[in-house]
Amino acid sequence: MRKKTIALLIISILLLTSSKFNLSAGEPFLYPAVVSTVHGDKWGYINDGGTFSIEPKYDFIREFNQRGIAIAAYGEQEYGLCKVFLINKSGETVSGPFSAYMPEFRNGMAILTTDQNGSVAVNENGEEVLQSNYRLCEYSDGMFSFYDSKTEKYGFVDIAGKVAVSADYTSVGNFDAGTAIVETDSGVYSVIDRRGKVVKNLKYYDRYNSSEGLTSFYEPQTGLYGYKRTDGTISLRPAYISAQPFSSGCAIVGLAGKDGVSFGLIDRYGKYVMKPEFSGIVYLEQGMYAAAKQEYPYFPLAYSLKALFNSKGEQLTDYRFYNITLFEDGHAVANDNASTFFIDREGNTDKSLPELRGIGNIKRMGNLLQVSLDGGLQYLKPDGESVWKKDDSTPLGNGITVKRVTCRKDHLTLIHYPQLSGLADMAAENKINQKLRDEFTSDYLNRKPEAEDFAQDISIDFSAAINKNLLIIEKYGYFYPLGAAHGTPSREYFHIDSGTGVFYQLKDLFLPRGKYASKLTSMVREQLVLDNRCSALSGESGYFTTDAEVLEEPDFLLGSDAIKIYYQPYEIASYAFGFPEFEIPYGRLSDIINTGGALWNSFDKVIVRHKVKVQQDIEKSDVKTLEGLIASYETGIVDAINQNSFKIVEACLLKGSSLYNSQKNLVSDLYNKNTGEKLINYEIYSIERDYVSGIYRIFVNEEIAVKYSGKNYVNRKYSWCYTAVPQKDGSLKLDSIAKW
C-alpha cells in the first residue's frame, strides 16, 4: 500500500511538472509592463531585470497569480467583450480563447461571463472547471452563486454545476463554513445551508450595512440612524444623521453641524473614540484612520488635507496628506501636494524607501516597487534604482513620433501635452511644439493660486494621429470645481500640416464663397430632427433644440470619410449627452470643397454620401453583422412577397416573435392580393443598443415601389425601427418593428 501511494505521488508530481498547468514555485516573478504603439498601448510582462519575458502584444492583462497563471486579452475596451486567454509564465495559452468579459481571480476562481450570457469558471491553475448556461456571480466555499435571467433571481450551483439551491432569492451572499445569507422578495434575510435549508432567520440585517453583528437603521420620527443587532434589538439608539458599518470594533458616524455634517468615530457602546469634529474620516485598516478638518466641509474628502490617527483616537501627524492608502505590513503610501512616499504607523516618512515627485501609488510587487504616478508606469528597486520605465513616445508614422510630456503643477493640476519629433522641417517642428505647449499649459501654469473655496481639479491630456501629412491632436480635459455635483469635460482638435507647421481652420477646406457654415447648419439640423425621433421611440430625452447653428469656426474633426461637427456639453443637449456629434460625409459637400486646397490634399480620404450613426461602445464586428442582417432582410422580404415564399426571409427573423408572425402573414396576404414590390433603396440611419437587455435598435429609411393589382408601381417611403436580439449561437435575429 505504501509503495502504491509513493508511486501515485511520483506520477502526480511528474504530471504537474510536465504540464502547462504547473505551479509557479521557483519561477521568476513577472511584472505587467506596457509600450505605446501606433495601434495603441500593448501589454506584456518583464522580469526583475526589466527585460520583456512575454512580449507586449495584449490589449489588457492582469497580474500573475501564485500558481503562475495570468489573464490576458485582446479587445477594444477593457470592460467590454474581449478575446480572453489564460497564460503561463512562458507565454503559453493554458485556456481559451473565450469571447467574454475580462475577469479577475477571486477566492481561487476566475469567472468569465461569455458573449452568450453564460459563464465559464477557471481555477488558479488555469483549468476550466465548469461551463454553465447561467451567469455565475461569485465563488466561495465550493459554491457558485448564479443569476437566472428568466426568474431574475439568484441561487447556487455546486462545483459540478448542479443547482444546489434554486434561484428563489433577490440577493445572496457568499458561502462561508457551509452557510450563506440570502434575501427573499419580502426583504427577509435568512441563513441557509448548502441544500437551501433555513438555519435561522435574521430579524434585522442589510447586506450593505451589516457588519460585526450590527446593522444601522433609520428612525423616520427623528430622521436619525442607530444600530440594531441581528435579533432586532436596539444596540445604539438613533442619534446620528449617518452611520457607517462597523470595522474592527468602531464605526464612523455623522452629526448635524452648522457647516454641514461633522464626523466622529464611536465604539460598540457609542462612546466617542474621535469626537465629531471632522469633515470626513477614512478607515485605513490595521487600526489606523485618516481625518480631515472642518475648514472646507463641502469639499470631497479626497481634496482635503488629512492627519493620521490611531485606534485610540490619538492624532499622530499634522494635516499634511491628501491621500493615504490602506496600511499593509505596517506601511501605507501617502500623497502631499506634489509627491508620493511611504509612511509608517506613526505617520513618519520611511526614508529607506523612495520619495517620488508626482501623485499616485507605489505598490510592493515581487522584488520591486511598481510606481504608478501621474499616469505613468515604472519599476524601481527598493533603494530607488530604476529597473524599467514606460517610454512615453509613440510612433505615429512617416518617421514622426509624439512624446507625452507630464506637467504636474500641484495636487489639483495635471497636464499632459504633446511634443513632436521627426518632422522633415525642424523650424516647422519647433513652431508646432511651441504652439501646442502654449495651447495646453499657458492658461494654467502661469495662473495665480486660487482661493481654496474656489479651487478646481484640472486634468488635461491628448491623443495624436496622422493621416498622410495631416497631424490631428485631440486635447481633452476635465474641470471639476471642488464641491460641485460634477465637473465639465472639454474637447478640442488641432489639424496641423506636418510639412509646413500650419494650423488649419475649417474654412481652409472650402471654396472662398462656398457658404459652408449655412450648408453644414442645414445638414446638422436634419440630423437633429431625426435623432429626436429616434430618442422618442427609445424613451430617451432629446436635444434642447433643432435649430443649432454651425459657426464659421465650429468645433470639428476631419475624419477619413466625413467631417464631424460636435458641440460642448450643455450647448444643445443635457450634460448626460456628453459631446453631441454630427458627421457629414464628404460626398455631400463636393460642390463646396476646395479640392485644390492644401488642407484637402494633406490627408487621404474616402468619398461616401452616407454614414451610419453608431452609438458609442458598439463594436465594429456587431455593426457589420447588423448591416448584413438588414441587407438580407430588405432584399429577402421583397423576394418573399413576390414569390409567396416566407422561407426566403425566415432566417432573418426570431421565430415566434411579433415581427416573425406579422411578416409571415404579410407575405401570403400581399401575394394573394396580387401586390408586388421592388426595393428601390434603403439606408440605415443609426444603430443603438440597450445595454440592460442587450437588444439592438436599427433605424432604417426605406423606399419601396409597390404595385397593387391592375395598377402601376408607386414609390413609397417608410421609416422603420427594427430590434435585433442576440442568440446563443452568436447570431442576431430581428424580432419587432415600429415606425419612427
UniProtKB/TrEMBL annotation:
The keyword Acetylation does not apply. Residues 507-586 form the DUF3298 domain. Residues 1-24 form the signal peptide. Keywords: Signal. Residues 626-737 form the TcaA protein NTF2-like domain. The keyword Signal applies. This is Uncharacterized protein.
